[in-house]
Each structure stands twice: as structure tokens, then as C-alpha cells.
Write a structure and sequence with these properties.
alpha+beta, five-stranded mixed β-sheet, 5 strands, about 60% helix, elongated
């Protein structure tokens, strides 16, 4: 096989092996009285064996070894089932590349090969006619297979081009959305800040209201940009995807800390702001739970989504020594502002013999709408 020949499916190679093996077996049985004929048939099987072990021969060598020994065997013992090997070889060769020259050459070989025994002195066998017709039909099958491969390759190429076009269209759409979002938001912010600056000394309440509206617009714009950026991520580069919780828990388990994770929500379907905030809270809660838990106890992490609220709850056994309160040791106060910016709340403290950290984040609450001046 040449270096430029495309790799064929493994299943197709196995399919070719079926008539080859059956034909070779029948040929050996009918040629058993001639060791030379049997040896020639074995030689004809070598290129097929090379195909099966994925060490294909160059096409010209495959053709010589798959056809010439079979024709020689029919010269020794007359026409027999070994001709099926020629039939399979012709179909295989045309199936690899169906050029007009190759089709014509294989057609000539397919018609002449069954009559070679007659040409060297054996009596006429009507089976030669049937084998010649079968060889021509096998060539037709090879042509169809070659066309099928060509169409499949074209379809794959077309699908790749469509994927590139869809990706480009999506990038263009996202770029337009980001431009429209940022341009509109900045225009509103500039107007609100400009108005506040002009009335700051004369009407403080109105100036504060204008600045509040500008802040709302900025937050809305930031959330929108984050969501769009989330759509632009590729597989494997988003540390905020839901699978990151599994990775986080796996890290603690490898370190010898037993953690039970129970996720009862489709996190990938939720807003990226809620998911990212939840991920930060769980990360901090796990770090402190691992530090303060009782030896050998399990940390429980439960994530659920109820009535438009994403709830993350991390609990661990309270140690014999007092655990640091939420205002100190947990590290969660640093996240409280972030949680509140997302419209949620976070609580931590003792609950019976357990220490509980619970975060609640809205997932479908309407965003505040700023009114332009």
C-alpha cells in the first residue's frame, strides 16, 4: 500500500477476509493432491494476512501476490475454487482507487484469468464463464465501495467546513452581543454619572440616585459579559463548570479526607454567576472543614436547586475543641460580599453536633433594570 492511500476501516478488512478464507479452504481441498498448488494458494494468502495485521503491502505487490499464484495454481490443477481469491483481490484493488485505467486493467485480468487453464491445455470448463462474470461483478462492487469512500470523505470535509462556519457565525454573534451590551451600558453610565456630577452640589439625593442607577447598570453589564465569556470557553478550560466540584472533592479524598458529595441540580444549566460563587464557597468551606473536623469524620457536601434558589450546604462533625466562628476561622467572610452581590446569602455556625455552612443563591430572579435619564 502506498503512503498516500487512505486508511480503510478495520471492519471492512475483516469483511474481505471472509470470502478469501472460504475460497482458500475450498481451493486447498480440491487441490490437495498437488502440494505445489497448495503452496501457491498459501502464497496467495500472504498479502491478505499482511492486511489483517495492519502491515499492508504496496498495491502492485499486493496485486502480484494475490493473483499470480492463484492463476499458477489453476494451471497446475485446472480451474477450481481458488479463483475466488482472484475475485476478492480485483474487488479490493478497485475499491481502493477506482481510476479508469485500474478498472480497465482489472476487468481484463478478471475475464482472462478463468480461461488460463484452457489456454495451457486443460479442457474447457463452463465454470470459467461464471468466474469471469463474477469477477466483473466484483469489480463493480469495488467501484461502488470506492465511490462510497469518496462520498464519505467529502461529507466529513463538508461537515468540518460547516462546523467552522457555525463557530465563526457564533463568534460574530457573541462579539455583536458584547459590543451592544457594553456600548449601551457605558452610554447609560456616562449619562448617569454626568447628570450626578452636574447636580451633586445642588441636589445630593438626586445625584445619589443617579449614581445608584449607574452602579446597577455596571453590575448588569458585568454579569452579561461574564455570561458571554462563559459561552466562549472550550472544554477543559473552565474551572467553574459543574465537574470542578467533583475534581475538588477528589482532591480531598486523595489526601485522605472523606467527603460525601451529593449534587441534586443540573449545574451546567444554571447562570454562571451562581455557579462560580457556589464553587468559591464550597472551596473555602471544604478547606476549613478539613482543618477543624473530628478525626475520621466525613464532610458532607449537598448541592440542590429548589424553587429558583441554588443551595450549597457543607457540614462536618464539631471537634472537641471549639471551632472558629464564621467571623474568624472559616475564611467565608471574604466571600460574603461576593455572595451578596450575586443576590444571595451565606450562613455558618453550629447545628447540633455538626458545623454547617450554607449558601443560598438566586438563579432566576429578574435583574434590576436601570432607567436612563
Amino acid at each position: 500500500m502506498s503512503a498516500t492511500r487512505p486508511e480503510r476501516p478495520r471492519q471492512l478488512e475483516r469483511l474481505w477476509a471472509v470470502p478469501v478464507v472460504l475460497g482458500a479452504a475450498a481451493a486447498v481441498v480440491t487441490s490437495w493432491g498437488s502440494p505445489l498448488a497448495v503452496a501457491l494458494i498459501v502464497v496467495a494468502l500472504l498479502p491478505w494476512a499482511a492486511e489483517q495485521v495492519r502491515r499492508p503491502l504496496p498495491e502492485w505487490l499486493f496485486a502480484v501476490l494475490a493473483i499470480a499464484p492463484v492463476v499458477a495454481a489453476t494451471v497446475v490443477v485446472d480451474l477450481n475454487a481458488s479463483m475466488f481469491l482472484v475475485t476478492s483481490a480485483l474487488s479490493q484493488l478497485v475499491g481502493r482507487r477506482s481510476s479508469r485505467r485500474r478498472i480497465a486493467t482489472t476487468a481484463v485480468v478478471g475475464v482472462v484469468a478463468p480461461f488460463v487453464p484452457v489456454l495451457v491445455g486443460w479442457s474447457f470448463n463452463v465454470g470459467a464463464v461464471y468466474f469471469a462474470i463474477g469477477n466483473l461483478l466484483a469489480i463493480v462492487v469495488g467501484v461502488l465501495l470506492a465511490h462510497t469512500r469518496s462520498l464519505a470523505a467529502e461529507l466529513r470535509a463538508a461537515d468540518a467546513r460547516l462546523a467552522v462556519a457555525r463557530a465563526q457565525e457564533e463568534r460574530t454573534r457573541l462579539a455583536r452581543d458584547v459590543h451592544d451590551l457594553v456600548a449601551h451600558s457605558l452610554t447609560v453610565v456616562v449619562l448617569q454619572i454626568g447628570g450626578a456630577r452636574r447636580i451633586l452640589r445642588t441636589d445630593g439625593d438626586a445625584a445619589e440616585a443617579a449614581l445608584s442607577k449607574a452602579e446597577l447598570v455596571c453590575r448588569e453589564s458585568l454579569d452579561g459579559v461574564r455570561e458571554v465569556v462563559g459561552l466562549l470557553r472550550t472544554e477543559g478550560d473552565d474551572p467553574l463548570r459543574s465537574r470542578s466540584l467533583d475534581d475538588l472533592v477528589a482532591t480531598y479524598r486523595v489526601a485522605g479526607v472523606p467527603v460525601d458529595l451529593d449534587v441534586r441540580a443540573d449545574l451546567d444549566a444554571l447562570p454562571i454567576i451562581a455557579r462560580s460563587t457556589l464553587s468559591r464557597v464550597v472551596q473555602e468551606a471544604l478547606a476549613n472543614a478539613a482543618r477543624y473536623r473530628s478525626p475520621g469524620s466525613t464532610i458532607d457536601v449537598v448541592i440542590r436547586h429548589d424553587l429558583g434558589v441554588l443551595i450549597g450546604r457543607v457540614t462536618n462533625d464539631r471537634p472537641s475543641t471549639p471551632q472558629a466562628p464564621s467571623t474568624g476561622g472559616y475564611g467565608l467572610p471574604g466571600l460574603r460580599e461576593q455572595v451578596e452581590r450575586a443576590g444571595g446569602g451565606i450562613e455558618s455556625g453550629p447545628e447540633g453536633d455538626r458545623w454547617v455552612v450554607e449558601c443560598r443563591l438566586p438563579t432566576d430572579a429578574p435583574r434590576p433594570v436601570a432607567v436612563a435619564r
